[in-house]
Amino acid sequence: MSNRVEPICSVKGTRDLLPPDTNLWQRVEAEAHRVFAAYHYGEIRTPILEETALFARSVGADTDIVMKEMYTFRDRDEESLTLRPEATASVVRAYLEHSLYNQGGIHKLYYVGPMFRRERPQKGRYRQFYQIGAEVLGSQSPLVDVEVLEMLVLFLERVGIREYQLLLNSVGCPKCRPEYLDVLRQALENVKPTMCADCQRRAETNPLRVLDCKVEADQPIIEKLPKIIDHLDPECRQHFDCVTSGLQARGLAYQVTPRLVRGLDYYTRTTFEITSGALGAQNAVVGGGRYDGLSEMLGGPPTPGIGFSIGQDRLILAVQAAAVLKSEAPLAAYVVWMGEAALAPASRLVRELRAQGLSVEIDYDPMKIKKAMGVANKLQARFAIIIGEGELAGGRYQVKDMTTGEQQELSPGAIASFLKGKF
Ligand code: HAM
Description:
423 residues, 38% helix, elongated, binds histidyl-adenosine monophosphate
């Protein structure tokens, strides 16, 4: 009988992110921190675990996310908890829990982190995925919508995404939507028997959801259904017109897409998605919109809000396709020491260089010079610093440029500023 232990793998739909890819993830996040800070957003970190009711009440009990995709379990004390499938509900919960509305003014918050949805995994779709998102709470102004989109576009361009489309729509508000839903229900009466089972159910429970059905055979039917954009009340219409004229004034291209109702129930007025041609089937990189009623749905005071979430996994795929940002964490120097006596000074130099922020590597096992230079090459070190008996005696170390092969002698104290000049 073999006593070999079966290896344990990562859970289906989850994955390990490894270097050097994680370097690209970090650089994308660093750009988000920079761009969002410039627009005066502050970072919020909310828990990954929330009460299940938070998502049922906000995302909507009849959405795919809540009905089929949440990781929900009973805690030991019988409380129903859920791994967050998205973060907008959590941000609004935190905003209410900490009474941020009492501070007046608007709040601009952003987040970066993992979300969980039990979807069928495929390229660009995972069960644990990551979002970079931003939310503005406390303003109804359509110019805030425009500014949010402007920031989003700036961020995408900063990380090298050029080919994308901004799809835009308005889903109206609780005043004008019921009228549209009646029209939609009536139109669905005739066609729903020919549609998929989900649409037949949604036609009764939540007809708006029919519009984002992905079943191929239903698409021509959906195309002919009445459009919400033609049924907005005057205030919603004016809001939408201000958004589009604001986008035009700032030279931001968009495409009005009447079917874009999004898969979450909290939206009002502006909804949008950004798609990228580089991505294949899972081409939505960003989703977002306004949610002026969400605070009240969660028991808070009326607080308009708008935001977006970027799917970071998909963004990274698009960034890799655009090949502007690349995974790279350049190693400034590899320090080679020859003979026991050189180990302590070599370690001291490595420590000093690292303390100055330079990326430096050393091996602690003795090696022949040829092998050590091979390691420097393999690690793609920009310089090799060689410390042997002669260098110790002379008080100057060999610094070899690994790209040109040029070599010079520098005193230990001069090496940091020399290297810094190269990076
Ligand atoms: P969402 O459209 O559900 O919106 O998700 C936003 C983005 O997250 C999607 O466009 C996609 O890039 C990414 N995403 C979603 N599911 C997966 C998955 N299974 N695997 C990989 N990526 C995925 C929201 O989550 C809203 N909270 C957006 C929002 C913020 N609305 C207002 N504020």
